[in-house]
Amino acid sequence: MRYRYLTAVVAALALCSSGAPVAQQASVHLNPVIAKLAAGKTVYGLINSGDLSLVNARETARAPVDFVYADMEHNPLDFPGLATFLLGLTDKAAILSKGNLQPNVALFARFPQEADESTWVVKQALDIGLMGVIFNGVDTKEQAVAAVRSMRYPPLKGETRREPVGIRGYGTGGATWAWGVNAAEYERRADVWPLNPDGDLIAIVMIESVEGLKNLDQIAGVPGVGALFLGAGSDLSRSLGVRPNAPETEAAFQQVLSACKSHKVPCAITAGSGADVARRVKEGWSIIRSTVPAITQGRQLMGEK
Global pTM? Predict the structure, then answer.
């Protein structure tokens, strides 16, 4: 028993400390959200509304969720805090258990600027090592294209997936440290899924206005958009001129879900209670943001482990 444990430890350490063994993981997505979405599974996540402490990060790392996103739209823009929180999410026991470098919980962030104005913010976040960015206020196809471009490196000669052409500045040091891979492997993986099936970055765009609803099909059809996301509905309902619990808001939610299904794009929503979690999953929402108790109860209601 002890021998098997020591063998596993040595294997995990070799995996993390050397550039060569990483290539053996070519078929394993390092982003747990993408790994599950690609397999047709539902993913669950949390919002972090300002507590970027190591203590909270360690608790989150072992929560029964697939992602957490830091809300820096309504909270201070704090890149050092984001880096600290990402460090705290690193769980060596999970690496040992899985036998690969995929974290249990991926870190995303939502930022204050609109999609076509946040290029430098996105670059900072990705260079830290985040695996996804949530773009608020995406109203047009052009804004969705700008969001995708900000997450991609410019293409090299001969690359086939050129559009939308990336504009991200090249720099991998912080991200390679966070992901546990060498620069070449990071570059291979640092592209948007599902445009690049091997990509481990996800661009999530938020539909929060009447204009966004009008342009749903165009937005959902942009190559590289990884998911459409509806928050608690406050911004969208305000744009509609109604309260979040109004029938018009729910009708808009269903409109977004229909567009996601039509374009085969994952659809994300915020759910309240466990019953709400179960309801949204049954409707076809593939990314659910809620609380740990609600997620746990919802999965129990659906008979999931």
Answer: 0.90
